[in-house]
Amino acid sequence: MNAEFIQAIHDLARERGIEEAVLFDAIEAALSSAYKRNFGTSQNVKIDIDRTTGELHVYSQLRVVEKADDPTLEISLADARAINPKYQLNDIVLKEVTPRDFGRIAAQTAKQVVVQRIKEAERGQIYDEYTNRESDIISGVVSHIEGNNIFVELNKTEGILVASEQVSGEVYRPGDRIKAYILEVRRTPKAPQIILSRSHPGLLKRLLELEVPEIHDGIVELRGLAREAGSRSKIAVYSRDPNVDAVGACVGPRGMRIQAIVNELWGEKIDVVAYDPSPDIYVANALSPAKVTHVDIDEANKVARVVVPDYQLSLAIGKEGQNARLAAKMTGWKIDIKSESQVNEGMGWDTNED
Asked: Does 102 map to a domain?
């Protein structure tokens, strides 16, 4: 090793954000193992690298004992005091054993350690970067597909869109650009594993923040969200500024804002409704596009009993109950819907709620 190598270590530490001490300690530990491996010794050695000149020394560490039984590990008190009269029992005496041809081995070993530390530092930086971006949206390019998993090329790394986080009906091929939600970042021995999602409700939330400036700026608040990925979603919005229409801001001029999100979600329908602090109004709004005649709120059981015109019943319930199910999930209320005819005919509600 030489001064140029030491300068390279200094530069590398600065550029990669690795502490110099960590690099030198790792190199010295690796050189200790390399010495024992190449010279077939059980000596307890200490490697010392001069941080300025790069000069390398190998020392055998010998414990001071009354009588040395193993000269590779011990030195007698008499021999130790012949070197320095101040030595006491159990002190450590350093005896230089630097081999003449150790420089070549040292250079190779140091290079391997540095490369390994660079990889570890890069993995750590990637982990830190993406951990801080959990629950955020990211754009990437599909690199390849293995089984049911889609691998997405990101900046300096790749993410995995696992089968359970994909949306039925969405088909991707290598080279396709994709936006996804960063669900989780996991540490692994090789590299951080970035789990992506296209089905998480958070993807819709982040898309709204990107597309609607009023949400990003905090003027319009997202108060409720329910999503059945690939099919339909409902969002409830509220404006903190009386001069700003929350629903209109999200829909955008000629529906352009919400349509951009629908396109990104491959045609998923999105109902945008107004949040209201009054539960009866909020539940009625949540059942949009159905028109509601009356809502009776049971606070104790968290149940909303809704009456709709006869011709609106199927619309309020939705196909396979989806509209009512999403409205209930978004508002947090159990919703029981009946038509006006059913109410007039005395078909009341079951009041024995769970």
From this structure: yes
- Side chain identity, residue 156: K
What is the count of structural domains for the chain?
A: 3
What is the span of the domain harbouring residue 306? 201-344
Do 88 and 210 belong to one domain? no
DSSP symbol at 221:
E
CB 104 within 8 A of CB 115: no
212 shares its domain with 290: yes
Give the count of beta carbons closer than 10 Å to the beta carbon of residue 64: 20
Residue 351 lies in a domain: no
Residue whose structure tokens are 């919400």:
258
> Tens digit of pLDDT per residue, the chain (354 long)?
677 888 888 888 888 777 888 888 888 888 888 888 888 777 888 989 888 888 888 999 999 999 999 988 999 999 999 999 999 999 999 999 888 878 888 878 888 887 887 788 788 888 999 999 999 999 999 999 999 999 999 988 999 999 999 999 999 999 999 999 999 999 988 889 999 999 999 999 999 999 999 999 999 999 999 999 999 999 999 999 999 999 999 999 999 999 999 999 999 999 999 999 999 999 999 999 999 999 999 999 999 999 999 999 999 999 999 999 999 999 999 999 999 999 988 766 655 544
Pick the closest to residue 287 from 315, 247, 258 (CA basis): 315
Judgement on whether residues 335 and 309 belong to the same structural domain of the protein: yes
In whole angstroms, what is the distance from residue 79 CA to residue 64 CA? Answer: 9
**210 contacts: CB under 8 Å, gap ≥ 6:** 137, 216
